[in-house]
Structures are given as structure tokens and as C-alpha cells.
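thought: fold this chain, then report.
action: predict
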Amino acid sequence: MQFEAITYEVRDKIAHLTLNRPEKRNALSPQLRRELVEVLKTAEADDAVSVILISGSGSSFCAGYDIGHYDNATGERKDLPAGWVEGKTFETWSGQFAKSCFRDWMTIWDLMKPVVAKVHGYCLAGGSELMSLCDIVFAADDAVIGYPPVRAQATPDLVYFPWKMSMAQAKYLQLTGNSVSGREAAQMGWIAKSFAPDKLDEEVMRELRPMTSIHPAQLAANKGAINEAYELMGMREAMQHAWKWHVLSRNLRPGGGDFHRIAEEQGLKAALEWRDGPFIKEGFRK
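observation:
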């Protein structure tokens, strides 16, 4: 299969799916998202595949959404995620962006085969949404994982924090926008395990090789049983309706447009300094 934003191959019952926009730190363009959903469904239907592994090429797993593809400053959009409802009637209030994120990443949740993420470098904002919907996550000890945009832009498109960790940690991370290392993420239960950066590839394959010996139907049953428990607790419904908070916090709250105004007037670097400066000054990660 040929893709532009992803590489894909199957080896020893493992589908290796690699985000392949290294020059953009694998930022999630609409094209990358469409290709990702397509290849996930392809791997699900392939009897030669037992486990799906998502990783990123270059220096990072994924730095978030490639926002330039979604802004409507010119009044024209040539490339949008599947299912996006355009038009002035819906543009400012119906949460099309957040809804599209929910649709794409729930593909991973609903897939019958287990999806594993291998995280290195930066895994931020939309990248952390993608990561957090994977069934198992392994990361490098020094990976940087977080959601800085909640400091100034909007609530997350996918409010996964309450379902991935304790209330104390969920509130801390969403209220501060601070990032944590891969090692810290493992300690708080956000991800399964972390490894030394130079051992990450080796250790992930050590985890996955014996996993492929389990019958795919048994893996599907185990995943389904766990997912159903979270569904009964309200996970899907809670995340499905998170777009309302996203719209309110981005478009309607006082100060909601400040980040974008500063970026337009002074440049993105100035906007990031305005957003993150107070935290960096106290020694927190960007």
C-alpha cells in the first residue's frame, strides 16, 4: 500500500504504521489523519496481522495537529477531515474540529485488534489524544507528553484525562497544561511502561513478539471486555460531548481569541512565549 504521510508494512504478525512527516514532527494534517484511519481498518481486516504498532519517524512521535490546515482565515479550505460539515450556518458553534478528532481516534478504540503506540520525543496536544486512545503505550523515559494548548487556546478536543489517570493527576495536567516525561507518565499510570531511549525499540519488540502468539480472536475478546466496562462507566458519552466545552472555551469565553490574535499580530513564537513563559520561568517544560 502506498501512502504519502504514513509508511506501512506487516512483519511477523505486527502491522508497523509510522507517521511520516518528520519535517513537521509528524503534525497531524487532515491527509495524515485520513491515511491513518484507512490503514488501521486495512490492518484490522488483514488475517496476517495480530497487533498494530504506531510510531513516528524523525525526532518525535507527534507534536499535535497541523493547525494551518484547519484555520479558515482565507475563507477557503481545500483539505479537511472526513465528516466535516462546512458552511456559515455551522462554522462558529458546532464543534466540527473537535467532532472530527473524536471520530478519528475512536477508530482505534473500536478496532477489534490491539493498537500499541511507541512514543519518543514530543507527544503533545493532538498527538497525546492519538496516543491516549491506543490500547497500550510504551514510551522513552525522556519523551515529553502533555497538552500545553489548554493554557490559552481551548479545552482538549478529546477529554481523555479523566479516563487515563487519577482525578488528582487529571486535574493537575488539564488545569496547568504541564507536560511530563515518559517515565513520569508511566509512574502515574497514563501509559503502560517507559524504557531508556536507546532501548525503546528493542524493549517494545520484546513486549510484542509473545503477544502475537495469542489468537487474534482472544485479543479482540479481551479488548472488547475492557472497553465495554469503560463504556458502561460513560467514557464514550463523556468524550463525545466534549466538543461543547471546546467551542465555549475557544470561541465564546472572555480572552478566548487572545492566543490567535497575538500569533497574527506578533507571530507564533510570541504567542507561545505569552502562553508558556510563566511556566518555563518556574522550570516546567514547554
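thought: worth noting. The chain has twelve helices and nine strands.
final: C-alpha cells above.
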